[in-house]
Design goal:
This protein is α+β, with helices and mostly antiparallel strands and 452 residues long. The protein contains eleven helices and nine strands.
């Protein structure tokens, strides 16, 4: 039995199945909908966006890469929607990417974390690939309203396999002494560029499509080449930061070395050293905070550049430098410089933390010694106070006894008028007993106050 026949039989079985069985599946579908993750469909859509519409040679493309801050991102979306409204095109209500048709121009808008790309694609024959950018066919006032700062602007021209490019023609487009030329995707296309900003403010990229299988392959090739250039420029943004801050970092390293020597020699005031180390650590923390994002972004962009180079598989054309040579010759040292700067920052921060810990330990040791000496002094004063208290206690016994015996003397003299007694004899006998009783009483009172 053929597969078509078996599938037809299965379909007939499903059609003849009881209605109750089919209805029983509906609660399961409702259950899946109710338990669906809120980001499920957004994640699926993310896998299908960020691609150029299909086109084939001959085609001209203008792409702008606008660097934006947080306050400009929303304005960029509004500006893209305003352009669509002028041409009666409908843009999606939300999202970081969309592609629409503006008469004979395909418009692709894409928002990234730090920048936005504006791509304008126009297919059709042309005489001069770089004479008039596609962007200039849009309303001039709209072009002036574009938000952000231009980080890259490129004219891309794609010509077909039937086009013959002579050396004289190429020399009118590029300075051939510094031109980059190589085959990509296994000789399916050849590219030319010198990655310079020309008099019109645009860079130039010429692509000879010699064997791309479909219009989608051509579009993907252009997109990879443009992403390579865009990510390369974004990766280089950290280089001026590292170069401008390196002298300040060197001063901090010298300062920390000086403070460390003073700590080792022990001839400076520890509290002053600690304050200076704290100030240096605060400056380092500020420097790390100001550069952390830029340096980490450079690592990410450099990795993306490497991925795009591997996807393109450039192959050398005799007499020219390849895309890999041009990219790695400058990008790799720049990335290494940024990595070195970041590593210096991290090492200096750790050394400052170690020195601060060392001086803090010395200060704590000094404070502990002072506390110990204070406790010894307090112990000595307490012992002296105890001895003084014991002396005063003995004197108080005599004083109380003296007054008690004096009272008994007055009583004895009064009794002498009633009973014949010798007052001096009575006082002499009672005096030792009074002293002993007072001494015992005072010790009892002191013992009742002692918590131990």
């Amino acid at each position: 039995m053929s597969s078509f026949a078996s599938s037809r039989i299965e379909s007939e079985k499903l059609a003849s199945a009881p209605v109750v069985d089919r209805l029983a599946l509906e609660p399961v579908s409702d259950l899946l909908s109710r338990r669906e993750h809120p980001l499920r469909r957004a994640l699926i859509e993310e896998l299908h966006v960020r691609r150029f519409p299909s086109f084939s040679a001959p085609t001209r493309i203008t792409q702008l890469v606008m660097y934006e801050g947080d306050d400009i991102a929303a304005r960029s979306r509004q500006c893209a929607e305003a352009l669509c409204a002028r041409y009666g095109a409908t843009s999606p209500p939300k999202g970081r990417y969309f592609s629409v048709r503006l008469r004979d121009i395909d418009f692709v808008w894409e928002s990234h974390t730090e920048f936005t790309t504006w791509s304008f694609i126009k297919s059709g024959e042309f005489e001069h690939p770089f004479e008039r950018p596609v962007l200039y066919e849009l309303p001039h006032d709209w072009i002036e309203s574009l938000p952000g700062q231009t980080i890259r602007a490129t004219q891309v021209a794609v010509v077909g396999r039937a086009t013959r490019l002579s050396s004289e023609q190429l020399q009118t487009f590029f300075n051939m002494e510094e031109a980059v030329c190589c085959d990509v995707l296994g000789w399916r296309a050849r590219i030319w560029s010198n990655f310079r900003v020309h008099r019109d403010g645009f860079g130039r990229l010429l692509i000879h499509d010699r064997a791309c299988a479909s219009a989608g392959d051509t579009a993907r090739l252009v997109q990879r080449l443009q992403e390579l250039g865009n990510y390369r420029n974004m990766a280089l943004l950290a280089l001026p930061v590292a170069q401008s801050l390196s002298p300040e970092l060197s001063k901090m390293e010298t300062k920390l070395a000086s403070l460390t020597r003073e700590i080792a020699q022990g001839c400076a005031d520890d509290e002053q050293l600690f304050h200076e180390l704290s100030r240096l650590s605060a400056e380092l923390a500020r420097l790390i905070e100001d550069t952390r994002y830029r340096m980490s972004a450079t690592r990410a962009y450099a990795q993306l550049v490497g991925d795009r180079l591997r996807d393109l598989r450039p192959r050398a054309v005799p007499g020219y430098q390849t895309l890999t040579d041009f990219t790695e010759r400058r990008l790799t040292p720049a990335v290494r410089t940024c990595e070195s700067f970041e590593q210096r920052l991290e090492d200096l921060s750790q050394r400052a933390a170690f020195s601060s810990s060392l001086i803090r330990t010395r200060i704590e040791t000094t404070l502990a010694k002072q506390s110990r000496d204070l406790l010894v002094s307090m112990n000595q004063r307490t012992t002296l106070q105890l001895r003084l208290q014991q002396t005063v206690e003995g004197l108080s016994v005599l004083a109380i006894s003296y007054y008690a015996i004096g009272i008994l003397g007055y009583v004895s003299k009064a009794l002498a008028h009633v009973v014949l007694v010798d007052v001096n004899l009575v006082l002499g006998i009672v005096a030792p007993m009074v002293v002993a009783a007072v001494w015992v009483g005072i010790r009892a009172v002191r013992r009742s106050w002692d918590p131990s």
